[in-house]
Structure formats: structure tokens, C-alpha cells
Amino acid sequence: MQDSFGRVIDYLRISITDRCNFRCSYCMPPEGVPLLEHSEILSYEELLRVIRILGQYGVNKIRITGGEPLIRKGIVDFIRAVREIETVADLAMTTNGSLLANRAYQLKKAGLDRVNISIDTLNPKEFSRITGGGQLSDVVQGIKSAMNAGLAPIKLNVVVTEVFSMEDLSYFIKQTYEFPIAVRFIEYMPVGRCGVKAGSSIKAIKNSINTAGYGMLEKAFSIKGNGPAYYYRLPRAMGVFGFITPMTEHFCHTCNRIRLTADGKIKPCLLANQEFDIKHALRSGTSDSKVAELFVKALQGKPLHHIWGNDREGTNLLRNMSQVGG
Predict the structure, then answer these.
(1) Lower Cβ count inside 10 Å, N or C end of the chain?
(2) How far apart are CA 236 and CA 214, in angstroms?
(3) How far apart are CA 79 and CA 62, in angstroms?
(4) Which of 246, 276, 271 is nearest to 261 (CA)?
(5) Is 13 annotated as a binding residue?
(6) pLDDT at position 161 over 50
(7) Which residues are 61's β-sheet partners?
């Protein structure tokens, strides 16, 4: 599939639930969000149909997101069913990791290739505050289980908000010396109305790493994945650092993705309100070719680039990140 600017779209991000067991401050407003009724969420059968249809048009990379995807019942069987679709070349998941310890081996056996794990601090008290009561130890155990299960490469997603500290940075630096992981620092994006402010710039974080006494960052080869991160490595480190700059140095010109929300809306761009309903078509006997046409139409609405500036002010995005899946 191609959009109106000639970008090849081969990557589908599917939010399978709007529910989450965390309440991360940048992902969900303090008052929470109205939860969808189960009947409003696309069934696994409907999602599998979409994956099969889009696979015939070159969409062969699938990422499962939420909310927290491991909350939804039947997730292991769903992963197995996705893996059985011949056109799927890459199958990944983004998770908060808190429920991963007891699922990692099952998910790998079912056909999941790898996981991205959201973890914004390694300070237990701060972690609990950011996540609204989450236990850091659960996530750490989930990361270890994912490593042991072979869900590699494991990427840790660190959203840099105003509470990110140099102590956090020091902790994450140490992890790359101990484990073959990718720690990815991500600029905060103003999705929804969470009232969170951005933290240190990615440039400042890179400078801090270079002056921390570990040596200078060296460019590293890109690791397996479909994201926009650029990677660096410290001398003698097992792992790497990734930097993702959607606000200050956006990568819209190379965007290869389209999103499907849990309630059946196609989102051509994360940082835009435009959505196209697919649920009605899936539930009203619409042919596969007509369903594909809806995605083609949605892609024609994919903008050349998002509209937000470096100041991240003035956002009027209607959905919060928990309702989109990143």
C-alpha cells in the first residue's frame, strides 16, 4: 500500500484493548478515560481478517499494543493465529511488562518475535508514582523472562518527561553494560490531555551520556525493528541506546505505518485527529476488497508531516495515548 505521497505502508499497529493496569501520567489523564464496552472492541476474528486482507497489499509487519495488551484474555492464542498468517513477516508487541513474567515463554512459543517494554525510571518509588501504583519489580522480572524466552531484541522505551532525572540516566547507562538490550529515549508527544510537560531534550541526554565518564557514544548498526530510532553504543557495552525525536526532528517522511484502534478506527497519523471507521464494514458483510478500499482511502488522508512544533504546545488531540497504543 502507498499513501498519497508515495510512502510505502507495510506496518500495522493494532491496539487490542483500551484497558491498562497502569495509570502513567503521560498516557492517561488523572481522572482516567471512559472504558469501552466489550462489544465496542474489535474481536480477535475481526482483527485476524484485517491482517489477512492487508497482507495481500504488502502489509507484513504487525505490532500489538494497548492499553496493555496482556490484559486481554486469549492473547496467546491470538498471537498464535496471527503467526499462522503466511504474509506476516514480523510480529512484535509493546507492553508495560508487568504481566510478562508468566507469559513470555508462551508468547515466544506462539510466535511472537520480540517485545518493547515501557519503563521510564528504575527508581521503585518514582516508578510507582509515574504509573499510579505499579511495581517496578514486576516489570524487571518481566524483562528477565523476556530475555530468557528469546524475545529479542528487547527494547526499553523511556519517555522523557519533566520528571526524568540524571539519576535515571545513570541507571539506564548501567543496564547497557550488563544486558544486550536497547534503551530508547523518546521525546514526549502531546497526545491527549494529560497535562504533562516534556523533559530534557534528546540532545541534552546525549551530551550527558558523553560526559558521564563512560566514553563517547559511537554509532551502532540499526537493530531489528521497524521504528525510527537511531542507535549508539558506549565502548565495551553489551547494549545500545536509541533516540527517537518525533517533535524536534520528526521522521514523517519515512513513516511506514498505519494504526487501528481497539474500537475499529483507522488512524493514518498518531499526531492527528483524523480517523476512519472500519468496524461497521467488518460487521455488515462488506467484502474483503471493499474493506481494503477503506484502508486505501484512509491512507490518502495521511498527512505529509504532523503539525506540532518543538514547543509541544497547543495540542488538541482527542484521544489519549492509552486509547491509541503509541
Answers:
(1) N
(2) 10
(3) 10
(4) 276
(5) yes
(6) yes
(7) 11, 90
In single-letter form, the type of residue at position 130 comes to I
Task: Give residue-wise pLDDT tens across range 64-74.
Answer: 999 999 999 99
H or E, element range at 1:
none
* Domains of the chain in sequence order: 11-323 (3.20.20.70)
Tell me if 269 is assigned to a ligand binding site.
Answer: yes
Kind plus residue range of the DSSP H or E element containing 203: helix 202-210
How confident is the model over 112-121, as a mean pLDDT? Answer: 97
Query: Does 26 count as an annotated binding residue?
Result: yes
Alpha-carbon dihedral of residues 144, 145, 147, 151, nearest 10 degrees?
A: -140
Q: Tell me whether residue 258 is annotated as binding.
A: yes
Per the prediction, the chain carries an average pLDDT of 90
> Quick one: pLDDT band at residue 323, thresholds 50, 70, 90?
low
24 is in an annotated binding site: yes
Please check if 118 is assigned to a binding site.
yes
Q: Which residues, other chains included, contact 225 with Cβ-Cβ below 8 Å and sequence gap of 6+?
A: 92, 114, 153, 155
C-alpha grid cell, residue 272: 492527528
pLDDT of residue 147 exceeding 70: yes
Q: Is 257 annotated as a binding residue?
A: yes
Q: Is 252 annotated as a binding residue?
A: yes
Cα–Cα dist 14/85, whole Å: 15
Sequence-ordered list of residues with C-beta below 8 angstroms from that of 13, at least 6 positions apart, any chain: 63, 65, 257, 258, 259, 260, 325, 326
